[in-house]
Amino acid sequence: MKTSKYSKLVNLVNGLDNRKYLVLKEAIEKRDSVKFVARLLNNSSQDICCPHCKSYKLQKWGVRNDMQRYKCKECRRTFNALTGTPLAKLRKKGRWLSYAECLKNGLTIRDAAARCGVHKNTSFRWRHRFLKNAICIKPDKLSGIVEINEKVFAWSDKGSKKLKRNARKRGFKSSIQIPVKDKVFTLYCRDRSKNSYDKILSGFSANVLQREICGLITNDTLLCSQSKQVYIKYARQSKVRHGVLDLSSKEIVKKDILHIQNVKSYIRKLEIWMERFHGVATKYLNNYLSWFRELDEFDYKIDSKTILIRAMKADRYNTNHYR
Ligand SMILES: [Zn+2]
């Protein structure tokens, strides 16, 4: 833009009435936030490789929608830092950081939508895309003393248009009241380095544990649990050293080191955190468990930029789902 034209523009801005000035200010802020997010994403992908053939032989290939594009010298295809990631094809970049902030604060889908000025369906889609990294990344092995405990949820069809069972009148005050067919067993393991693992189990037996957490607890660890037959049998079958706390005598700590206070505290915090959602559909339960695990991993101090960058880096090189 020529200097004379620019001066005219400045004069025009100075002459705007308050309402028009606010509209202009909002448009500039929106543009700034889009550029800020795009710069953050571009700068966080220095080690980028081709999502199609995994080659590092790339050349820069212009900028589109504020994102740097690359062309692969091997397969000749073009892409940007978001191609093949959960954030690909999502719109309204300028609001992503605000949305990540909502995730950090555990806002519901509706509240996050209102806060970011997006439709609730968008809020729903963004939540699951942003959490993809947390869902994918779980420790595959725990070490040292490993505490183990379970929690039972009642099966929930929240959000479904048709219920396949009769509606419950009052819910359940404790897991004992939940009918067996409605029980959803979730397992939690935590080692003393604060690595946490959670899993929705297909049942609650030693064989299920052996099958579904295979390799997580090796025989150089010391498993610590309450004296439940499931854990005792699982430890025996897996040949894992096992410290048992006597459930009947309400034993809390044994030999000064054997306890399950860490994993119990983790589950308690999860329960408190989940209260805000007023029930979670079972089909999305894993997302919520993963979301909480990510918050816990950062000691509940994860910042919105980290959430965004982690979401971008999830599945970067092994999926085409999001293209
Ligand atoms: Zn390539």
Label this structure with key terms.
binds zinc ion, elongated, three-stranded antiparallel beta sheet, single chain, 323 residues, 8 strands, 11 helices, Nucleotidyltransferase, domain 5
Give a structural overview.
It contains 11 helices and 8 strands. The chain is of the alpha/beta class. The protein has a domain at 140-159 and 171-303: Ribonuclease H-like superfamily/Ribonuclease H (Nucleotidyltransferase, domain 5), CATH 3.30.420. The strands form 2 sheets. The chain has a 5-stranded mixed beta sheet with strand order 6-5-4-7-8, with helices on both faces. A 3-stranded antiparallel beta sheet has the order 1-2-3, covered by helices on one side. Helix 8 links the parallel strand 7 (222-226) and strand 8. The longest helix has 26 residues, at 18-43. It is elongated and about 85 Å long. Residues 317-323 have low confidence and may be disordered. Residues 50, 52-53, 55, 72, 74-75, 77 line the site of zinc ion (ZN).
